[in-house]
Amino acid sequence: MNDFIFCSPTQFVFGHGANDKIGEMLAQREGFKRALLVYGQGSVVRTGTLDRVKKSLDAAGIEYVEFGGVRPNPEVNDVRKGIEAVRENDIDFILPVGGGSTIDCAKAIGFGALHNGDVWDFFSGKAAVERCMPIVAVLTIPAAGSEASSSCVISNDELGLKKGTNGDAFRPVMAFMDPEVTFTLPAYQTAAGVTDMIAHICERFFSGVGDVPVTDNMACDVIRALMDAAPQVLENPEDYDARAAIMWASTLAHNDVLGLGRSTNPASRAGGWESHALEHELSAFDPKITHGAALAVIMPAWMRYVWREDPSRFLLFGMNVFGIEPIDDTDEAVEDAVTVIIDELQGFFASMGMPTKLGDFGLKPENIDAFLKTLEANKGSVFGGFKKLTMDDARAIYESAF
């Protein structure tokens, strides 16, 4: 097990009626008097979740300024507008109500508002996040894990880029998580979220570091719990226990606990995040592409390309998650087993209605040059942890995904 530094400052309020407790619990905190209430493009309004949050705030005497309309794959100009709203309205803290896109937008507003330059400085490498306004997340779409993570991803449409930054300073101080609000999530959104969670775990599991038994076993157990819960909610969207399992797995998948001991740098998260890097170029190219759905295509394609770098890692994954092992230790038997393991993972994604090839998004092989241009701008000419990838490698992975 490698050395690590782990910070998890988020207070979780999880379960029935959690969102009705927001005002009461925030009123107990010093300095939480006026919020920027950040939300997306309508679902929290249609379902009544936003009204519940506002009612709770009103009852506690906490003021708020509304900032709605955040899109999926949030764009930096929305962040800039949010920063202006913070500065013009004497805001104390940021209160996102939604999924990863809304929470990431709120995070960027929170650290951008304390910065003298442009917020994109943090995504272009010109500045590092050292401080942030308090973030209180109200989770409605479990997927990205942003409710407790040190990650924030923002798109820049003008540059055609989608970039992330990391920092413990913007981990939310509180997260309110009521599984009942996810009952109305469409099946596609639910499935894409589960896919994203599994990808977060796999990015850490396949990090180029040897076995870390405690962390590895926890990681595989959470994946198996997700694979048990997902079919249940797709059959019965109001299965509370299954929804609760998925919501909590969202947090565990990306608050770094499932990568502890797997990083070569004690202060950094484990993994090279190759699949996420490859996918980000797709949803930057077309913001309508759902991140998790695209990962359902990209991650298996990446796995098929790199598994020979460390077959034992895939065999451990296959045994712990699917109960699959090779019939003997010959190279042919190992290759057959790994092939089945990757096929099983992608088959699970497909069983939830996830796409299986990039063409399902309306993408074409001739788009690959555009993907590679922004990928190299984001990651450099060589990137990765499990296996170092060149742009030629990336091209081969993209081509295999069509």
TrEMBL record:
Keywords assigned by UniProt, alphabetized: Oxidoreductase
Record's keyword annotation contains Oxidoreductase: yes
> What organism does the record attribute this protein to?
Slackia heliotrinireducens (strain ATCC 29202 / DSM 20476 / NCTC 11029 / RHS 1)
Q: Which GO terms describe its molecular function?
A: alcohol dehydrogenase (NADP+) activity; butanol dehydrogenase (NAD+) activity; metal ion binding; methylglyoxal reductase (NADPH) (acetol producing) activity
Question: What is the recorded name of this protein?
Answer: Fe-dependent oxidoreductase, alcohol dehydrogenase
Task: Extract the SUPFAM superfamilies matched here.
Answer: Dehydroquinate synthase-like
Q: Which residues form the Fe-containing alcohol dehydrogenase-like C-terminal domain?
A: 190-402
The answer, when asked if Mitochondrion is one of the entry's keywords, is: no
Domain named Alcohol dehydrogenase iron-type/glycerol dehydrogenase GldA is located at 9-179
